[in-house]
Design goal:
single chain; alpha+beta; 8-stranded antiparallel sheet
Length: about 130
């Protein structure tokens, strides 16, 4: 009985790290790779909210220091083909790792999703089942 309980505890501990993020590459350019965290997709009747990640090939700079990746919380209006930035976090290392360099709220203003953009790739992932 004790071994069975220990086994369940070990399995739960191992699976905890796996549930933290599921980054799937959805686009990018020669300057960065774009990802969506599939575990953060939240839907309402018309909108979808999720986290995205841009993993830069070179170090970039903001007033508070250098960064190599940026996570953004975005909301997509699936019916009207538009999106808005809710929150952004800049990290010193790639893939959202290392020191948090800067974080702040987005403007929350809606903007049309441009055809052929990374925003469109993210929109397709977000809105595919809406």
């Amino acid at each position: 009985m004790l071994i069975r309980g220990l086994f369940v505890l070990v399995i739960a501990a191992l699976s905890y790290g796996e549930a933290s993020a599921e980054w799937v590459r959805v686009g990018g350019t020669h300057k960065y790779d774009g990802y969506v965290d599939m575990t953060t997709i939240g839907r309402t009747e018309q909108t979808v909210t999720l986290w995205t990640l841009r993993d830069f090939t070179v170090t970039r700079q903001v007033a508070r220091g250098p960064y190599r990746s940026m996570k953004t919380k975005k909301q997509y209006d699936c019916r009207n083909n538009r999106s808005r930035l809710l929150f952004a976090k800049y990290y010193a290392e790639q893939m959202g790792k290392g020191r948090l360099v800067y974080q702040g709220k987005g403007t929350k203003q809606w903007a049309k999703v441009a055809p052929g953009s990374d925003g469109e790739a993210e929109w397709k992932v977000a809105c595919r089942n809406v």
